[in-house]
Amino acid sequence: MNAENSKSFFNMKRKNMILLITTVIMGLTAGIFYCWSVSVTTGLALLPDKEYINTFQQLNRAILNPLFMLCFMGTFFLLPISTWVHYQKPLPLRFWLLLAASILYIVGVMGVTMVGNVPMNDALDTFNTNTATIAEISARRQSHEGQWNFLNNIRTFCCIICLTLTVIACMIDSDRLLAK
User: Fold this and answer.
1) DSSP string, 7-40
2) What is the mean pLDDT of each run of 10 residues along the chain (180 residues)?
3) Contact yes or no for 37/152 (Cβ under 8 A)
4) Cα separation of 107 and 122, whole Å?
5) For 54, how many CA atoms within 13 A lie in the half-sphere containing its CB?
6) Which of 1, 94, 116, 178 meets the CB 3.0–4.6 Å disulfide criterion with 151?
7) Virtual torsion, Cα 142, 146, 50, 110, nearest 10 deg
């Protein structure tokens, strides 16, 4: 292996390693949102109003931990980095798949989270069930639950699509496709 082939081999390994790490982190993130959508919210729905709000408040506090942030924010940074390292002329299919995943994650997951779910979480966190009336507790839940679940389902769907795009990007041989 000559020096140029060695450099090319190293760059390919580095690009593929970054893509693999991105895909694993994306998978963990999609899994978090999927599990929340299919189990946590369905379990919360079974609770009486006061317990629903108290439990939701505790879950929102508990999820803000380093492991969750590693996945959630890691995907936010790794998808664009993976896209960038796969940029070459002519643009390979892998680049376009990763670009689509990056845009969808930034808009459909991070954007929805920051504009929708986080403000709702913050508003719910300040609600005191110990001083509120039964009617206020019920009204608070009614104004929160359906909209929050809808937004979370958008994030879940977007994560699943992003994961699918990154897995496909892992599976294709962009260099071989370009040669044809």
Assistant:
1) HHHHHHHHHHHHHHHHHHHHHHHHHHHHHIIIII
2) 56 86 97 97 97 97 96 97 93 96 98 98 97 98 97 98 97 61
3) yes
4) 20
5) 9
6) 116
7) -130
